[in-house]
Design brief:
By secondary structure, this protein is an alpha/beta fold. It has a single domain, classed as Alpha/Beta hydrolase fold, catalytic domain (Rossmann fold, 3-Layer(aba) Sandwich), CATH 3.40.50. The protein contains eight helices and eight strands; from the N terminus they run H-E-E-E-H-E-H-H-E-H-E-H-E-H-E-H. It has an eight-stranded mixed β-sheet, sandwiched between helices. Helix 3 packs across helix 5.
């Protein structure tokens, strides 16, 4: 009898180990190069559900924040893990960072659109439903995400227009942003790349979650964008949270440094994004 119990114990241990390894594989991204410019290679880190070959999945590309001049796709890995657990293919995207010499937010905007085209071009490989590709971004990454919908000429045979836009503390009104003006290097004016000033009909359904006391990407610009989206007949849901600033940092603290989010409010905001996706038919499949 003792030998049987020992045998069963090791069987359970073996199965648990295999499950853990499988889970780790799902939550660990695979790195691909989606774009090469001269000697610069840009990576896309893809989180894929284990059953990706069995049915078409929705997808989300994630653009990190960092003021257009800093950051890494690794900052988006926790969000990627979350979305893959919702049954989606999730991609943490690297884009060119502004260097005050040659690279500006304009190049990053081009990279964001090219990342969407790249993902759609590999729809068969990743078992992606090309009509359900969302973009997600926070702060400057939110600007890049929504820019794929707004600044889109659709001249390429593979569309870079997303089917949903998910924004956290996004930069949407840039006309008086002196930092953006510095980064543009006289290639353009902030108004030219300001999403709030280029809203048009037939844009992708959008959700925004934002702190009322945000001093980095002020609520006034987000409200202007939202109103113009609604006036143009677009779907745009805005959720504003009291007592917090940028990235849900408590209003009693400076929100200009590394985010220190109120965890309860952050989870409430993230839940609204998940609900929005479900309403659009994204995710919600076994992973």
């Amino acid at each position: 009898m003792k030998k049987i119990f020992i045998f069963l114990f090791f069987i359970q241990l073996f199965l648990a180990s295999n499950i853990a390894q499988e889970e780790n594989a799902i939550l660990t991204p695979v790195e691909y190069i989606y774009k090469t410019i001269d000697t610069t290679k840009l990576s896309a880190f893809v989180f894929s559900p284990k059953n990706v070959d069995e049915e078409l999945r929705s997808a989300v590309l994630i653009f990190h924040g960092g003021g257009w001049n800093e950051g890494t796709p690794m900052w988006a890995f926790s969000r990627g893990r979350h979305f893959v657990q919702q049954g989606m293919v999730a991609v943490a995207v690297q884009y060119r960072l502004s260097d005050k010499e040659m690279i500006t937010p304009i190049e990053a905007m081009d990279d964001a659109k090219d990342a969407i085209r790249w993902l759609r071009s590999l729809a068969d490989e990743f078992s992606i439903d090309t009509s359900k590709v969302a973009v997600y971004g926070w702060s400057a990454g939110g600007h890049l995400a929504v820019s794929t919908a707004i600044f889109n000429n659709n001249t390429n045979k593979i569309s870079s227009k997303p089917n949903a836009v998910l924004l956290v503390s996004p930069a949407l009104e840039l006309t008086n942003d002196s930092w953006v003006k510095q980064l543009l290097l006289d290639k353009s004016e902030p108004t030219d790349i300001s999403p709030a000033h280029h809203v048009k009909p037939n844009l992708s359904p959008t959700i925004i979650v934002h702190g009322r006391d945000d001093t980095v990407t002020p609520l006034s610009g987000v409200e202007l964008f939202t109103q113009r989206m609604v006036d143009a007949g677009n779907v745009c849901q805005l959720y504003v949270y009291d007592g917090v600033g940028h990235m849900f940092t408590p209003s009693t603290e400076s929100d200009k440094g590394w985010p220190n989010p109120d965890q309860k409010i952050k989870e409430e905001a993230y839940s609204e994004i998940d609900n929005f996706l479900r309403e659009l038919g994204f995710g919600n499949k076994p992973y």
